[in-house]
Amino acid sequence: PGVLFLHGRRGLDDLFQLHAKRLAARGFVVIAPDLYTGRFIERFPIYHDPVVEDDANRVLDYALSREDIHPKKVCVYGLTRGGFYALRLLVAKGRQGKDIACWVGYYPHLQDPNRPEPMQVYRYHEDIEKVEVPVLFLIGRDEQYQRLRPALMAIDFLKNAGREAYIVVYPGVGRGFDFRNGNRRKFADDLAAKDAIVRAARFMREKLGVR
Question: What average pLDDT does the segment 104-123 reach?
Fold first, then answer.
C-alpha cells in the first residue's frame, strides 16, 4: 500500500524522515518528497508558494506509476503545513477518490497561510467542505488554539455532512509530539506518538483495502 508523505514547514528534515521511516516499517511504500529544496524555499517559510501544490501533484503521479504500489491509490499523510498541501491535492487538484483513498493529518494547518490572521484562527479553508474521502486527524490538546479550533470545526462539519471523519485529541501534548526530542520530550509525547502511528496505519490499511 502506498502513502504520500507531505512534510510541513520544517522541510523534509531528519526528524520528519524518521517519521516516514517508522511508517515504512509498518509495511507501506512511503513516497516522501522534499518540496522545498529544489525550489530554493528556505525552511520554516512564512508564506505559501502555490508551486508546492503543483510539485506535490506531480509526485502523486509518480507514486501511482510505481509497480510496487498496489492498489493504484494512496493515502495522503500530511504533517503541519503538509496538511494544507494534502487538502489542495484532494480538492483543488481533484485527486480525491480516484487517486487518493484517505487523508491522515497530524496537527494539520487547514487554512491558506497567506490569508490574514482572523481567518487562521476562526475559519478553515473552504476546500474542507468539499472533502469526500475518509479523514483522520491526530492532534494534541495543548496545540495552539489557531490550529486546534479549525481542526475540531472541520471534523464537526464533515461528520454533520455525513462524511467519514475522525479526530483524536491527545491530552498533555502539543505540536510535534511525534518528533519532539531533547529535554522537552515527555512521556505523554511517547504515548501519543505510538498510539497515533498505530491508528494511522490501521486507518490507511482499511481505506486502501489491504491487510
Answer: 94
Give 202's DSSP letter: H
Cβ contact 131:96 at 8 Å: yes
What do you get for the CA distance between the two ends of the chain, in Å?
Answer: 9
Q: In what order do the strands lie in the sheet with 165-170?
A: 29-31, 2-6, 74-79, 100-106, 135-140, 165-170
DSSP assignment of 22-82 equals HHHTTT-EEE---SSGGGTPPSS-SS--THHHHHHHHHHHHHHH-TT--SS-EEEEEETTH
pLDDT digits (tens, 9 = 90+) for 63-109: 999 999 988 999 999 999 999 999 999 999 999 999 999 999 999 99
Domain residues for the domain of 23 are 2-208
Residue 170: phi, psi to the nearest 5?
-95, 125
The C-alpha atoms of residue 31 and residue 157 are separated, in whole angstroms, by 30
In the chain, pLDDT over 90 holds for what percent of residues?
A: 85
CATH value at residue 72: 3.40.50.1820
Q: How many domains does the chain have?
A: 1
- Output b/e per residue, 111-129; b: 16+ Cβ within 10 A: bbeeeeeeebeebbbebbe
